[in-house]
Q: What sequence folds into this?
């Protein structure tokens, strides 16, 4: 386990060092959840257009529950594992690029990565027959958001990969729930 954490730290230092001041503002925008409100509005419109008002409301409730689940699971893991974020590690402060507006206490696993991946998998599966390429756009978006957490200096790669894996499982689980509600277009 010690070797895995050491490798994770080394990979973080490498990936984080790829950044430059020229790109910092873009990655800060990417990592900010409010940046994506227009994107969420477009996705909500697609849900409404394809599934109608009643099913859109069901999907909205399920998405709210899904995000709550990923967020609370991340909090449970963070306080269970108590792995400090890289921006909290004294031995890393001199060698990493920390540009995030704040640094939380614990980082394993990334709630940002989990919730974006959950939404990507959930909506990708929901729309897989209607918009077959949408899933790739959504997965790319989730991966970029996950990487942004490394770029800004608040998560190790293992934090984001675990978040993405758990998010994918949660998204798949909530997709299965939509089948029970018979959400169809």
A:
């Amino acid at each position: 386990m010690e070797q895995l954490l050491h490798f994770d730290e080394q990979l973080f230092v490498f990936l984080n060092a790829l950044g430059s001041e020229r790109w910092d503002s873009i990655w800060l925008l990417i990592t900010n959840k409010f940046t994506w409100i227009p994107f969420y509005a477009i996705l909500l419109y697609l849900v409404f257009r394809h599934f109608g008002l009643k099913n859109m409301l069901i999907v909205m409730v399920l998405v709210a529950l899904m995000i709550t689940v990923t967020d609370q699971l991340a909090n449970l893991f963070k306080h269970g594992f108590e792995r400090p974020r890289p921006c909290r590690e004294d031995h890393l402060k001199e060698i990493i690029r920390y540009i995030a507006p704040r640094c939380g206490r614990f980082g394993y696993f990334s709630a940002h990565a989990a919730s974006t991946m959950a939404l990507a998998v959930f909506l990708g599966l929901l729309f897989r027959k209607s918009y077959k390429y949408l899933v790739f756009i959504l997965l790319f978006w989730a991966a970029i958001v996950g990487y942004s957490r490394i770029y800004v200096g608040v998560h190790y790669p293992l934090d984001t990969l675990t978040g993405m894996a758990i998010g994918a499982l949660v998204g798949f689980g909530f997709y299965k729930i939509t089948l029970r509600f018979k959400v169809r277009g």
